[in-house]
Amino acid sequence: MNERIVVVGAALWHEGRMLAARRSAPPELAGRWELPGGKVEPGERPEEALVRELREELGVEAEPVARIPGEWPLGRPGYVLQVWSAELLSGEPAPLEDHDALRWLGVDELDAVDWLDQDRPAVAEAARRPHP
Length: 132
Description:
Blueprint: E1 5-14, E2 17-23, E3 33-34, E4 37-39, H1 46-58, E5 61-73, E6 79-90, E7 99-106, H2 119-128
Parallel strand pairs: 1-6
Antiparallel strand pairs: 1-2, 1-4, 2-3, 2-7, 5-6
């Protein structure tokens, strides 16, 4: 039986725009866009993982606001994506780990980047909901 691994993603909002991050690795994902985030570590709540990952990957402080309903399977067996809307509290996002570019996108611009397949439904759902 496969272990269930939760990966958290942030629909990180600031001034009415959502942050998109372009992957730099692994090679099969490089150049495509995703919601920033990462794996929940043992003993960690998903919201705590989200705050930690945004600090590590982007150098920002953020606050999870609400979980986006749904859960999306990732390419590896047992891995699932859960997404939270989050508010940027402080810092200017920079691509510190796993990314080579960042873009703030308005709701009407979300189709301007090539999202990873598993992120597309989460991005669409996040855009339909009230955001900070």
